[in-house]
Amino acid sequence: MRPPFPPSPERSAEVRRRFAEEARSERPDLSTLCLLVGAEADGELDEAGLDAAQVELDRLAGLLPYRPGGPRAWAVALRELLGERMGFHGTPADYQRLESSLLHEVLARRRGLPILLSVVWLEVARRAGAPVYGVALPGHFVVGFGPDEGQVLADPFDGGRVLTGADAEVLVAGATGSGIDPSMLRPADPLDVVLRILNNVRAWAAARPERSDVALWAVELSLLLPSHPARLRYERAQLLVQRGEFVAGAEELEAYADVVSAVDEGAAERVRGEAFAARARLN
After folding, report:
1. 228 closest CA partner among 262, 266, 202, 264
2. For the whole prediction, is pTM greater than 0.85?
3. Burial (CB count <10 Å: 0-12, 13-18, 19+), residue 26
4. How far are the Cα atoms of 3, 42, 100, 200, 207 from residue 97, in angstroms, in the given order?
5. Beta-carbon count within 10 A of 124 CB
6. How far is 260 from 58, CA to CA, in rounded Å?
7. Using one digit for the tens of pLDDT, what is the confidence trace for 94-135?
8. 157 near 137, Cβ under 8 Å?
9. pLDDT tens per residue across span 233-254
């Protein structure tokens, strides 16, 4: 199996316990959750590695100027530090790497997907006291500074470039074919950010059937979040069957069918048929 190598079953169980506990806490910590995603992907990320990543975020925050000013001044200060001085940015090739979705790897490589680079911006800026939040534009995550009436957006994937209104319109139009809606500019909830990161991991694995192991842990972490799409249970069942775990997959399909039957009995029967076919593959 190609690196990153997964953790041992015992380590994975501990990582998942902590992930679920953090996700259900009163104020879930985004960096902790992202690093636990990394620990589920990479068995070499031990406790010392988790601590080192948090220390690096603290160190970077300490390099920012003290209270540089309003939202635009904060955005410029982050761009100058992280984008220009430290070299954090993304390239099209980063979409082809699992490491681009793992926070500890992004901190080490200074490359990543827009949402992971945005997590770096968010966590460094938050530690320094900036009025910062994530903005989940369709197809391209960015960061926002300041209140609605004075909001400033920056694109960490482009080295922290401060965006004009027209820039944001172009990003949204490229993803949706339509204009920007004010609702798209609202602060993103940390748990929604984590779910979107896990969706990216699932999409990466879906294009690589030989990495169904990655798809499975991404689905299973998603299911530990307090709010998640019910259909993820169906996806997990399909992955189990794909990996030859026919009994476990059939049981999950049957459980999902029971949920679906309340709204669509026809769909439930089709899923039960899939469960029967999975069990038949044991013969």
Report:
1. 202
2. yes
3. exposed
4. 11, 14, 6, 11, 12
5. 26
6. 46
7. 999 999 999 999 999 999 999 999 999 999 999 999 999 999
8. no
9. 999 999 999 999 999 999 999 9
